[in-house]
Amino acid sequence: MAKRDYYETLDVPRGADEAELKKAYRRLAMKFHPDRNPGDATAEDSFKEAKEAYEVLSNPQLRSAYDQHGHAGVEAATRGGPGGGFSGADVFGDIFGEVFGDIFGGGSRRSGRQAYRGADLRYELELDLEQAVFGHKTTIEIATLADCEDCAGSGAAKGSSPKTCEACNGAGQVRMNQGIFTVQQTCPRCRGAGSTIDKPCPTCHGQGRQRQARTLEIAIPAGVDTGDRLRRPGEGEAGRNGGPAGDLYIEVAVREHAIFRRDGADLSCEVPVPFTVAALGGELKVPTLTGSAALKIPSETQSGRVFRLRDKGVRPVRGGATGDLYCRVVVETPVSLTREQKDLLKAFEASLKKDEQRHNPREHTWRAGVRSFLDKIGL
After folding, report:
1. What stretch of H or E contains 358?
2. For residue 9, what are the contacts with CB-CB under 8 A and spacing of at least 6?
3. How far apart are CA 310 and CA 321, in angstroms?
4. What is the span of the domain harbouring residue 206?
5. 328 and 276 housed in the same domain
6. Contact, 171 vs 187, CB < 8 A?
7. How far is it, in rounded angstroms, from Cα 203 to Cα 150?
8. Which tens digit of pLDDT belongs to each residue from 329-359?
9. Final residue of a domain: which of 36, 59, 86?
10. Do the domain assignments include residue 303?
């Protein structure tokens, strides 16, 4: 089967620099690493393919040979042909230790049994607006990989313990001679653990970890909003071989509210105002998150007018001034009128028509604009 182009494998341009190569490799390694995809042969092949591409392109001599002659150039260079003269151990040894020491929290390839950091977990927590504004304490249940209680994370059955791997003497890495080159790679017997288990723990089957449901108490600070993320260090999945646990990230999502809409620190709502109050003026009680407040409606208030109630909004979680509450007036037209009420309104309407421009200035201006437009287009 023909090998893929190395640049295509890493999804980088041919002129990519070292930083771009490393970033692309980290992304693929995190996605396809065998520890994250146990038993997935396709992921393992993708991981090996990405590793090979990075090892070649991150080495100036091998990359030059590849750019000029493709895969054949790399094979010639690693056999000591044109473009050779460098140590294969530099190519195949240091890269793995450098990159995966950062990613998985393990020690270097010389430090013996490698420890791996546990994976981070994500949990989406839905809150009511009031809970987000004033803070909230709750409990959540998460499914995670935790240290096996029966073997205390060792992976070995009770009464036994892991033994130092005889193939690598506990280093987790082995060196293989290929002609004049020495290639260092993960020990095939212990798979980098540095130890082997003769009697696996029957509970976790030698993995040292098992999936468990955990209940956590969470304190949500006041003022959070949708998109805010809370971090709980060490509450993620357990690490391997004594590695540190990952973190838990709680992402907040605030439910829609029946009355209020939130925009940062400010709140807004619509306030239905009776026709008579809008015309004559008056005072209404409007809701806030801390109770009710008086809203004065001046006479001749039109639908759509917005009133601001200061400091009736939200105090942001990161500090700062408390926001305001904006009340948008919606003038309500009376419905289900009796015959008497309709007659009264008709009489009222007739009285307005005696001085229509004065009582309905916006309607008068609008009609004048319509007439001007129709005259302009010849209608």
Report:
1. helix 356-359
2. 49, 50, 53
3. 11
4. 121-162+197-254
5. yes
6. yes
7. 7
8. 999 999 999 999 999 999 998 998 888 777 7
9. 86
10. yes
